[in-house]
Amino acid sequence: MTEASQIAIWVTAAQRGNQLALTKLLTACHRRLRARAAARLPAAMKAKRGPEDILQEVYLDVFRQINWFEDRGPGSFLNWVYAILDRKLAAARRAAHYQMRDIDREVTIGTPAADSYWDLLDQLFADSGTPSRVARREEVLRALSACITDLSEPHRHVIQMRFLDGLSVDDVATRLGKSKAAIVALTKRALEALRKSMDQLGEFTHGV
């Protein structure tokens, strides 16, 4: 019996309520589904949400929607599950994107996070004489977080870890698998990029 024939038998049984047949279906497809999820899930997301986490959601949808599947020939079941997987991956990427922007933008004044942002502003303009304490406190924090969001990924990550999370150079080097010298150089470039971006918003970085 070919794989396609066996899958067709399992599909028919699963649509009649046979849970074991559905489990066998997903087991037969798991390797290919996991490979697709691993290839299409951004590396930055895998630490918090790996391929197996995404597949659990996919399998739950398959269990719920199996009666909606229409057999259109060999490969149609796998393609149907691929489509569910791709939608889950797209949703996960959107959620991660919005979560990152929310974290960067929604800063509450007076919290430790806000204090970290002020410390970062002091670091940026310490040698320029530009006061970082301005009257519109909330606006300057939002401007800074927006500029951080627009940095390149390496620059954004090192700024986050060094100045907002408060990690040491040694800790950042360990996490990123780089030398201390490389982290120092990366931090310098990231601060220069961030300072340049903030300088373009001079209304936020000049004293009152």
Strand content: under 5%
Reported by name, the CATH topology of the largest domain is Rna Polymerase Sigma Factor, Chain: A
Query: Could you give the count of β-strands?
Result: 0
Measured as a percent range, the helix fraction is over 70%
Structural notes for this entry:
The chain has 208 residues and is an all-alpha fold. It starts with a helix and ends with a helix. The model is unreliable at 102-112, 129-136 and 203-208 (pLDDT under 50). Helix content is 75%, strand content 0%. The chain has helices at residues 3-15, 19-40, 43-46, 51-65, 76-105, 112-125, 137-149, 153-164, 169-176, 180-199, 202-205. The chain folds into two domains: 3-103, Orthogonal Bundle (Rna Polymerase Sigma Factor, Chain: A), CATH 1.10.1740; 107-205, Orthogonal Bundle (Arc Repressor Mutant, subunit A), CATH 1.10.10.10. Helix 2 (19-40) packs across helix 5 and helix 9 (169-176) packs across helix 10 (180-199).
Highlighted features:
208 residues, mainly alpha, Arc Repressor Mutant, subunit A, 2 domains, 11 helices, 0% strand, elongated
Gist?
The protein has 208 residues and is an all-alpha fold.
Layout of helices and strands:
Blueprint: H1 3-15, H2 19-40, H3 43-46, H4 51-65, H5 76-105, H6 112-125, H7 137-149, H8 153-164, H9 169-176, H10 180-199, H11 202-205
